[in-house]
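S1.2 Input.
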Amino acid sequence: MLLKHNYWYFISDLSDEFCDSLLALGKNKIEQITHEKGSAEAWTWGGGEKSAKPNADPQTDKTRAELAEEGIDPEKTFVRDSEVAWLDDQWIYDEITPLVELANYNAGWNFDIDFYESFQFTKYNPGGFYGWHRDGNSDHAGKFKRFVPGITQEKDGGKIPSDHTMNPDMVGKIRKLSVTINISEPDTYKGGDLKFDFGEHTDSGKRFHTCEEIRPRGSVIVFPSFMPHCVTPVTEGTRYSLVLWSLGRPFK
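S1.3 Output.
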């Protein structure tokens, strides 16, 4: 799919008061999860989180080709190191979803979207990152399937497979737009940048793009969920972000 705009962003559109409220809520949720379950670690499809491969090397923001050139088997690296909590508060949707709809229009995508998932509050500690991935596929193979307790096979640890859902409003739909919101002051951490891969046929030197545009606190970026991206390792401090996905029927 050829796009005029690979992403659309709003610089510092959200107030400090809003970001402060998000931080307080998200931190509290992570503390609760850690207290109740022992860990708020984010997991990935295929068991690519750090705890699943405790003796593996981090993938960081290196491509599979770059890892292979260094003699590292990509399958023996872990792809994610972060903590997450899920937020469903209406006041957050009221603030964020109008920006998503505006970006969808301004960028010229005009994707049909009719549902928003829960917000993912993410904490990246020093060394934390999320390697190259897509949030969703654009065809019918990427549709969410219904999870039926006792019938659908669970993942290790009793987790619902990432391509299944218990929410009837998500069944048969795909992720179409992804949203990332920076809620940390830029001088409180180093690294932790959102980075895109626009594809091997992009003009020389323009394939990989680090989105420094959204480092100011309260900035929002929206992009198609099929776009490969990563979060580079945090080298100092702690980065907090909020992520959202909008869904709709598969593209025709």
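S1.4 Remarks. The two ends are 12 Å apart (CA to CA).
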